[in-house]
Each structure stands twice: as C-alpha cells, then as structure tokens.
Amino acid sequence: MMEQKEKKLREEDLKQIEENKKKREEIQRKQIQEALNQQTYPHFKAYAEQQHPNNAQAQEELIKQLQEQHFEQYMNQVYQQQLLHQQQQAEQLRALKKAQKKQEQQTEEEFKKLYVNETESNKNHESVNMTMVSEKSDQANGNRDNSDVANNASLISKKEENEEDDNEEDEEEEEELPPISAASMLTRKDIKEFKESVRRDNDAIIKVGSGETVTVRVPTHEDGRLIFWEFATDYYDLGFGLYFEWTISPSNNVTVHVSDSSDDEEGEEEEGKQDPEKGDKSNENKPPCDEIIPIFRRDCHEEVYAGSHLYPGKGVYLLKFDNSYSLWRSKTLYYRVYYSK
Questions:
Q1: Is residue 170 very low, low, confident or very high in pLDDT (cuts 50, 70, 90)?
Q2: DSSP letter at 256?
Q3: Considering only CA atoms, which of 247, 244, 236, 199 is closest in space to residue 329?
Q4: Mean of the pLDDT values across residues 57-85?
Q5: Residue 32 and residue 127: Cα distance in Å, rounded?
C-alpha cells in the first residue's frame, strides 16, 4: 500500500511539473506574440488600408490574419535555429572528444618513446662522449635554424600586421553603412482576385523568359518610410530575392532590367581572366549592395507572395525575379510595388 501511494504521489508531482511547464511556455508564446504584434502593426495596418480602403472591419481581420501568419513563421524559424544550435553543439562535443582521445594517444606514445630512450641510454654508457659531440653539432645547427625561423617569423608578423591594417580599413568602411532590419513576408490565397486587379495596369505584368532574371529597381521615396511588394505567376513557380543598393537615384521612377543567365557566365569568365597581381577592379565603381532576402524558388503560382521592409536609408531596392533555372518555360509575372509613410 505504501509503495502504491508513493508511486501515485510521484506521478502527480510529474503531472504538476508538466502542467507548470506548459503554462510557462504558453505565457512565453503570448509575450512573444504581443511583442511581434506591436512591432508589425504599423506595417500591416498600412498594407490593410491599401487593400481595404474605408472598411475598418476588413482591415482589422486582415491585420489579425497577417499577424498570426507572421507569428507562426517566426516560431518555426526559432525552432529551426534551436535545432541547428543543438546539432552544432553535438558536433562540437564529438570533435572535442575525438581531439582528447587523439591527445591521450600522443601522450602515451611519447611516454613509450621516453622509456625506450632511457633504457637504451643505460645500456650504452660508453657512447656518452659521442653523444655530447653530436649534441654540440645539433646545437650549432639549431642556432642557425633558430635564426632562420626568427627571420621568417619577423617577415610573417609584418605581413600579418599589414593584413590586419587592411582588414581594419575595410571594417571601418563597412561600419559606415547603417544596419538593415529583417523583412516581413507572408502569403495570401486570393491569387485570382490579385491577378484581376493587376491586369488593369499593363505595366505591372512582365514576361520572364526562360533563363532570364528580371530586376525591378525601386528607389526609396523621400515621403516614404516602408516599401511593400506583392507578386504572383501563372502555372509555374519563380525565384525571388530582395536586395538594397546604397546609391542615390536621380529620379523616383521604377525601372525594369532583364538579364540572361549567359551574361552572368560571361562575367565570371572575364573575372577568371584577370591578372591576380593587378587585382580585381571590376567592382571598384559599383555601389555597395546588401542582401535582405536571398533568392529562392517561390510557389507564387499557388499563392500571392507579399512583404514589406523598413527603409534603411536612401538607396534603391532590387526586386529580383529569377527564372535562370528554367530552360524552356517562360513565366508571366504579376507584381505591385508601392511605398508607405
């Protein structure tokens, strides 16, 4: 009877601990969601006002939907980062154990060599003088070797100092640029309605040929604070990425540039032909460019892909629509870009 009571008490304690853990996790999730909602509310509100003007109820429903999607995406990223961190820790632990084992083996081998050397020295007392002579010659050679090593070490240290100075100059140049915040991304199911609304503006429909990459250059607006984008395609997926070029555009006009995948290959061949002693001067005149969203294939033929980003400063956003992986299929792109205060 006593054992059953103790077992029951342990089970109740474990159950209580588990319930408390779930409550703490739920409180943490609510706190994170409230913080994210406060952070994204201005972005989503501006977007909802653009989608449903003069309809407060529809705006609130869209904002709530966008915030829930953003929260789920954020939590998925957190879980993936935790899993990756655990895997990295496990790999580091395995590497540390392997290094310790190797060190122990080396130490054991050194002890064995010392023991063998001591045994041989006890058996060969008559060769002491020869040993002393050889030690002197070795010492003389060692002095010459040490001087060479010292000269080489001084050259290496000077080279490292020069490299550190260059790195510090590069870091100072890079630190002049302000930091860039992460972009907010989401998907919507109203792809049919979106395409119909975009068809009213022929300039917002682009045919991306097979093997091509279309870059939409959108300068920051002096009256704006945020950039918004939406896009979808017919039938097939398309690659998308977002970049920010630190250059001042002479106008606020949005321009479209089309490049073929062969253009990139020719550029790589030209870079390969450059003289390494003269250095690479191809990027000297190019303005710095930061990656905000890497290019990945998006299932934009099934959903509308939308997003927003806070201006990091004055410059030009590069919306890249990549179809270079497709050898035969062209893609019809429907897109919309605008700014908000």
A1: low
A2: E
A3: 236
A4: 81
A5: 79
DSSP H or E segment with residue 122: helix 56-123
Q: Which two tokens stand for residue 278?
A: 């003269």
User: Given a cut of 90, is residue 200 above it in pLDDT?
Assistant: no
Give CA–CA dist 329/17, Å, rounded.
57
Q: Kindly report the CA angle at 310 between 29 and 331, in degrees rounded to 5?
A: 95
Residue 226 phi/psi, 5-degree rounding, is -135, 150
> SS3 helix, strand, coil % of the chain, rounded to 5?
55, 20, 20
Find out whether 321 and 238 touch, Cβ atoms under 8 Å.
yes
Alpha carbon of 170 to those of 156, 163, 167, 175, 312: distances in Å? 21, 11, 5, 9, 21
164: enclosing H helix or E strand: helix 128-175
Looking at the chain, how many residues does it have?
341
Question: What mean pLDDT comes out for the span 321-336?
Answer: 94
Q: Cα separations (Å) of 188 from 35, 139, 227?
A: 23, 78, 18
Give the Å distances, CA to CA, from 37 to 33, 75, 291: 6, 13, 25
Range with lowest mean pLDDT among 55-59, 90-94, 130-134: 130-134
Can you give the pLDDT at residue 167? 59
pTM: 0.52
